[in-house]
Predict the structure.
Amino acid sequence: MANTSDIIIIGGGIAGTATGYYLAKAGLQVALFDKGFLCSGSTGRCIGGVRQQFTSESSIKLMMRSVELFAGMDEELGTEVHWHPGGYLFLAHDEQKKQAFLDNIRIQQAAGLKDVRWVDAAEAREIVPLLDTAGLLGGSYCPTDGQAYPFAVVNGYAQMIRKLGGRVHAFSEVGGIISAGGAATGIRLASGEEHHAPVVVNCAGPWAAEVGALAGIEVPVEAERHEALITEGVEYLGIPMLVDYRADGGYFQQFRHNGQFIGCYSPSPRVPGHSAGSTFEFLTDMPRRMLKLVPALAEVKVVRQWAGSYEVTPDGNPVLDRTELAGFYVLGGMCGHGFMLGPAMGQAMAAFVRSGAKEPPYPEFALRRQFGRAEAMK
Ligand SMILES: Cc1cc2nc3c(=O)[nH]c(=O)nc-3n(C[C@H](O)[C@H](O)[C@H](O)COP(=O)(O)OP(=O)(O)OC[C@H]3O[C@@H](n4cnc5c(N)ncnc54)[C@H](O)[C@@H]3O)c2cc1C
């Protein structure tokens, strides 16, 4: 039957396309649906940062795996994804932050991330000669963290799904989950068209809760607006992703492949909901925050701003699990880290689905866990 496959995936961002690719690669027939164009959700709105500096062993190891996957992706997907290990430098301007980073570095190194290290202000200046080090105590630096281009990665995965015999349906909103005898058997599009498969994976990013609700399943993921901007392209200056957690700080990096600076900051107070509206406040504030760290960027022009959603869980960790409805899985809630986690999490999700296991591979990412300890490097 034309509308029957082995796996249905809802969502054409990094989570859906990575999961779909690894399942298709294993010989399964995949049908992927997105209500908009591929990358129309959070993935196309993110700033492309990829880091291994986390504080739980699972996240660190998954990110080390993701970095390996990004490094081999051009060859694996047959397309240029602009992976560049340009590093991440987390900045500490007070003793408390310094101590927290030193503690995190110990956890990261114990988990196998040998490249991460503390650098004092002088070494930070050697790594980033344009950095304003006034008040800087030092930072947590990992040179094997990096960047990739989200649109290229998602398109690469989607092309491979098609090449391996799967189907990718854009502008196809899923409006219902079909089930029989306590098990998922397919989906119904908003248009009324039905597609059937014994496995349906919810990779709907900030809409994971809404898609779960289509099957009466509660998924604890909430959307939260985050804004971003990008500049014109200039000569590559070799600046790693700079992360400044101060109240008036932010995160930004320069894309190696086109010289554009791209950055964002976490709003305070939080802005819950699906709004993707941009503000004048962000447009004027973000460049000031960038200039505070790298004054030499004063002449670089901002060319575009936008907003998208983080997909937030109560503890800042993702969800990778089956649900109470047999055959209905969820991968999401990656809390602003989904692009970087996507390749390794997609691979893990594909292996979990194929195994048919009852228990998820990472108990701390279980759907019905106790939401306790929070990820500190948000
Ligand atoms: C400003 C900003 C900066 C960020 N920076 C980074 C970063 O540097 N590094 C990083 O790792 N992460 C970053 N993130 C987070 C990252 O973008 C997300 O964690 C990640 O993209 C989530 O991927 P996803 O595939 O789960 O969701 P999405 O990319 O949102 O994909 C979900 C898809 O599901 C589709 N969908 C929803 N409902 C339906 C339905 N009913 N039917 C069919 N399709 C449906 C949507 O259209 C969407 O395309 C950033 C996010 C923002 C907003």
